[in-house]
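We include this case.
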Amino acid sequence: MASFINELYKYRYLISELVVRDIKKKYRRSVLGVLWSLLNPLLTMIVTAMIFSNLFRFDIANFPLYLLCGQIIVTFYNESTSFAMSSIIENGSLLKKVYIPKYLFPVSRVISSCVNLFFTLPALFLILIVTTMSLPIASFTFIIPLALMFFFCLGVGLILSTIAVYFRDIFHLYGVFLSVLGYATPVFYPESIVPDKYMFIFKINPLYFYLKAFRQSVYEGQLPEFDVLIVCFGIAVASLCVGIYLFKKYHNNFILYI
């Protein structure tokens, strides 16, 4: 772990260039550019809120804010891990020409997704102010679950990028998994509608804990529960340790398969 952190610091300038490249690539030839990071969650939230507020009528106070919190967490996870998964394969030609530490590519992808996430936060706080006419100090503790989730996504990204080199079917399987995970996370529905016999689904879903801590900060305007943060911390550490271990064990053979 220490050597991993030292190398990250050593190549920090290269990582920043890769992050800038990823962001420019995402918004290339776009008229509004990074503004889409602000408009996209707002437009998606408006459409989804209209459907679920009128058709399903879930009894959730301030449903737009509740929904947007869930969308931000799930979108960040989906984007960061999916981009990291393909990072080694997409940069295969570069890795064959010059020496670059291979882990820089999944790391830069997760960081670029994190940057996109922060572009969406103004939309979140805009909805918070408009719907509640207040901005509690505790709301700014949202950075704690997001920071822990960053390391969780980084660990998952390292795992997926390793698997993808040897097993290309993971791209199709992971798309199905993300769909299942999205429905297993209370993004647009309240936890109360889930029968007790299915509550174990939340307990085995890492996103549930990060979303719960995030909502406690932003939606409820209070400090995240310590027990929830401990679980988030444990998941992040476990994910990162497994990811670093697998990546370091197999990265020397990547060049034979990309």
Observations:
- DSSP finds eleven helices and no strands in the chain.
- Residues 11-19+34-256 form one domain.
- Residues 104-132 form the longest helix (29 residues).
